[in-house]
Amino acid sequence: MILNMRVMRKRKKWTQEYVAQKIGLTRTAVHDIETGKQKPSYKVLVSLEDLFKMSHRKLFKQVDETYTK
């Protein structure tokens, strides 16, 4: 299972680096959030909601990897 954030980022054709730059993180931090290795702080969560224009509940919903293909 993967997070919807990754799916939405790829649909927008955004790189992890682009997202990181927009919200003030490193690419590695974005990767770790997408893979569930790291939980975002409240400030980062709000920044992600603003960037993706969707709620954190939708961003962090788990989706089946086959859904992304």
Automatic annotation (TrEMBL):
Pfam families: HTH_3. Residues 5-59 form the HTH cro/C1-type domain. The keyword DNA-binding applies. Keywords: DNA-binding. Transmembrane segments: none annotated. One of its GO terms (molecular function) is DNA binding. The keyword DNA-binding applies. This is Helix-turn-helix transcriptional regulator. The lineage of its organism: Bacteria, Bacillati, Bacillota, Clostridia, Christensenellales.
